Amino acid sequence: MYYSTSLRRIIFLSPQRLITAFTLFLTSFLPNVSLAVEFTDIAPGTNLESYQRTESVRNAIFDNLKQPGVVQTFEVLAFVPPAPRGTPGTALIDYDNDGDQDIYVTNGPGTPNSLFSNQLKETGKLSFIEVAIAVGVDVTDQDSNGVCYGDIDNDGDPDILVLSTGTSSRLLENNADGTFSDISVSSGLTQIRLSATSCSFGDVNGDGLLDVVIGNTWEPWDHRLPLMSPDFDFLIQHNTLLQNQGHNEFVDVSVASGINTFPAVTNALTLADFDMDGDIDFLSADDQGARAPAIYGGRDVGVIRLYKNDGTGHFTDVTEVAGTNIVGGWMAMEIGDLDGDGDLDFFSSNAGDYTVAAMAPQLGFISEIGDWSSIWFLNDGAGNFTKASAGALVATPFGWGSVISDYDNDADSDIIYHGGGDFGFFVDASNPGAVLNNDGAANFSLDSAALANTTNHSRRNILGLAAGDLNDDGFIDLVTVSNQNWPAAYPLVPMLPFPLGGPFDSTAFLWPTFMPVDPTNPAAGFVWSGLNPDNGSLAVEINSADNGNGWIKLSLIGTVGILPKSAVNRDGIGAVITVKTKQGLVTARPILGGSSFASQHSLEQVFGLGESKTATVDILWPGGVLNKLYGVKNGSRITFPEIPCSYDSNLPARKYIHCVKHSLKKLVHKKIIDKHAAKHLLFSAKRAYYENNQHRRPHHARKE
Question: Is residue 435 part of a domain?
Fold first, then answer.
């Protein structure tokens, strides 16, 4: 009998190889199913372990409540300061422009903030050295909270904003050599002394300069009264929008801009073009606290507030129209395309189903599973949002920092979020690290294996989270910072005596700070458990990057001041990148100058391709210019500059092509791109123009 060469080879394989070959044969007919990746914490045993979060001064108030004796429910709920161990944030930033991602982490009073300089480019190996004091970003004298960064003067290097509570924030200008100068006074920031949490850079008025919005809460932070009762609304501070005037000077335009329509406790925010009309809009995640929602006779103050920009930096509150007026204890803000339809959806972490169920006796109102879920909202393409169902997850836990990114590179957007709340009675440990894997249609499942062999996050009270590719392997890595850790000798107590029916049931714990005198009678009061946490820590978790999925990596450059008619900031913050794989999978993602909670992800973007070998990249720049790049190959690292010649232009072909050629020639001369990249960009610009203007397409125009 005659056998083909390939079949004869299979027949004489060993039994194990035969099974493997047959499995591969069968799976070739199945839809693309992403293989698992895992994260591993590299901080233990390295100098990354030197980071320990110092407690805030207000922790002394909490210590007073822990003295021997009985305390009552309201005392604990209202008079334990918010986050007595601090609210640390983190940012992945290439501060020295050497091409790798460094780690900035904030700390408490009297302890320097940390800047861990990545030595990948210098040594070829992933390692870090601490340089914060040496380069001038330690900010030792303040209780630092959130952090965000951007090139405020368009000189080609990132500048850093570090927030604080009850004092002015600090603006640190990069001196172009990797060292920094404190320009807080000359910039005008010292005039603003508020209790800030998170910040985000973006160009709201289209002048090519990065402005910044800051989320505020209340003053002072030695109690939680505004989270308990409307009688203390007068303590709540409006958010702040600082407009860049050039020369590193900022003015407060919060009132004139229209963002101060509603005072609320803002935990997180971001500036992003949510409706993809070419200007930067504003979203804030506000906190309801323990106040009853309107359906129970209270008032809805904690909602996702959305402000639409008219293109000049004037905002209109469209919260109700857009459908984001959903009450919650919203903690984080993250933007991305979750259902693969090319528009921008968002995720916000919340108080969580487990936490609210555990605190039901103290809250005094009833809630159902799903009312307080950490959840995602889907965009209908017209800027209207619908709160999704948790689906197979059933119930989701508390959260702070978050990221929307494709951690397994299967060409869809996943969600990762962490966090636990310090509620006085206990510290919430219901979230062991939520890695939510997307099926491509915004249906999520818990990937418990992704964090199975890393640090035990149930014992870390995480606040800040930032993501980016630290080791340059094309897969995102995770950096998280906690404000306190629970020693291994202390118990993790199940949060609920009954299941909610989801995969988080088995890992929903709490750290007992106070214990009830009589578990059957909350009115009997509480006594301190006698257990104190350790200082918080830094975890740097590297992706195993071993599932074989493809990827591309993009770094955007705005060309204001380089090319005529360009008005895009040097970082390209505010741009929206859309990637379409050869197999037709689409995902969109904005460049954000601060999101998550108190943190900022790397500006360098990694997009997964799944099994595809090539992709098309579309950029919507702030201001509305569209550029496109075809045939981007798997494993490519692309520097994509703004070309101020939009392929949807009404210009005649000759003038459009002249604009592109002139721009590319100058970019090559400035050594921003090389001639090979210019050739690729020119070909793509022509093709995009003719595909968008079919009536102008010459007969000889070829397709790739």
Answer: yes
Task: Report the domain count for the chain.
Answer: 2
Please give the mean pLDDT across all residues of the chain.
93
What pLDDT shows up at residue 44?
Answer: 98
Split at pLDDT 50, 70, 90, the class of 646 is very high
CATH number, domain of 252, equals 2.130.10.10
Answer whether residue 26 shows pLDDT above 50. no
Q: Is residue 218 part of a domain?
A: yes
Q: Which two tokens stand for residue 159?
A: 């500048």
Nearest to 625 by CA among 273, 378, 368: 273
Same domain (yes/no): 414, 378: yes
Cα separation, 682 vs 675, whole angstroms: 10
Q: Which long-range contacts link 40-44 to residues 24+ away (Cβ below 8 Å)?
A: 40/453, 40/454, 40/541, 40/542, 40/544, 41/454, 41/455, 41/539, 41/540, 41/541, 42/126, 42/540, 42/541, 42/542, 43/455, 43/537, 43/538, 43/539, 43/540, 44/455
What letters, b where the CB count within 10 A reaches 16 and e where it falls short, cover 580-589?
Answer: bbbeebbbbb
Mean pLDDT for the stretch of residues 456-463: 98
Write the pLDDT tens digit of every residue in 416-425.
999 999 999 9
Dist CA 553 CA 487 (whole Å) = 39
For residue 187, CA distances in Å to 22, 29, 141, 526, 596 come to 66, 61, 19, 48, 26
604 lies in the same domain as 498:
no
Where in the sequence is the domain holding 678, given as residue range(s)?
A: 553-696
Residue 520 in any domain: the answer is yes
For residues 41 and 46, give the distance between their C-alpha atoms in angstroms, rounded to a whole number: 11
Instruction: Label the pairing between strands 90-93 and 514-516.
Output: unpaired
CB 472 within 8 A of CB 100: yes
Q: Is residue 182 part of a domain?
A: yes
